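note to self: the first set is below, dont mix up w the second
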Amino acid sequence: MKLRTKITPIAATLLMLSTSHSVFAEDDFKLSDKLSVTGFIDMSWTYADSDGSSSEQSAGVDQFEIDFLYDFDDKLTAQVDLEYQDNGTGEEVDIEQAFINYAVGDGFNLKAGRFLSYSGWETEEPTGLFQFSGTGYAKFFYGGYQQGISGNYSGDGFGVALSIVNSLGDLEGEARDSESPAIETMVAFMPTESITVKGFYSIDKLDGTDEDIELINIWASYGEGPLTLAVEYNTAENSAFLGSEADGYLVMGNYAFDSFGLTLRYHAYEVEDATGMTVEDMSGITISPSVTISDNLLMVFEYRMDTDDVSDIDSDFIAVEALVTF
């Protein structure tokens, strides 16, 4: 996640108290007429093998999240997301999001605080993914957890958004203060109930330079009955380091068979340095069946094959995930 804020004693107490409740159905669990709670527990077993030369496996709780949703009235709401995560370098307990939202009226909303960027087809949370793993290219093309203010307008078949934040953040939680604010813009079109197209342009200042980080993210989805299709294209300058240029895309499809589902995805991305030399060139194919065990438990299975054209190494990845929502 982005800029991390350590949990205060009060927030830690709320987290401890909230975990004493049983798992409920998908709807928010209401603590009162104004306060409700939702969240998830994400557990997995994974195995990775690189060209037969090395392999590793792991098992455990990847992430636990509890979200507090408060309705002050019909216009003002607030949300605080508390998260435990094992990010591969250690365990962390953090405030992931904390923001207020005010419905100005006529489809216009204002949001202020710490919140996740609107950009990107693949979500940051496992509850929004169609498979176990993300592509891995979000760090180059998506905005992260940001701190600032955002305005969003939704009309009949279209929407626009503008966020002014201290920085675009990143997917490791390191937002920062800057001499000039970062800006993220969005334009969305929904010509039918089945089709959505969104485009994002984001700009930020690269630390210690006069150069700008520029991100462009465009995705389109089609959802009708059990079928979901999506395509995404990304391009960026200076997002990896000074002088870098990056491009990436994905194509995916998901089909649901009653309680079963199947996702197929292909993605690729490339990063070049200032001289035009390719420093990263990755692609991957993902096959991911899933089965709904109950209203609160989803099992996800994944096989993924990645190809690194720079090092000429192929990797195989297998995962079994248990995702409990409440």
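second set (the one i keep forgetting abt)
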Amino acid sequence: MNKVLIVHTSWYTDYINEMIKLSCKVLSENKFSWDISLAPGSIELPALAKHKLIKNKGNYVGIIFLGIVVRGDTTHYELITTETFRSIGNLAMDYPQISVINNVICVENENQLKERLFNTENNTKSLIKLIHEKSS
């Protein structure tokens, strides 16, 4: 069983769609199948993934989180990024048999986002390496 859960946010749709496309391309090239789930925002990503893990027990060997958080004028950015990353880390510790990669991109502006968008391909490859490492 080589199935990965892709959990993504609903913000910045064009960029998220590109990230999904990149992940699916890498997964397909490496003979993985996947399910895709949509969370309203970054902070909801880990809870949605945990729900899917519980509902589909034993169905997934990995999860990749795809999201974008752009800094605004308030402290909202710090709160969202800190809590999202902490919760994803906690999920990885709660499910050590599942490989987890956090590809939530946190940037100051759209230019930084465009520069980092293609890290999704490398992070998906890292997920596959982690899955193989955990299965050996």
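remember for set 2: The radius of gyration is 14 Å.
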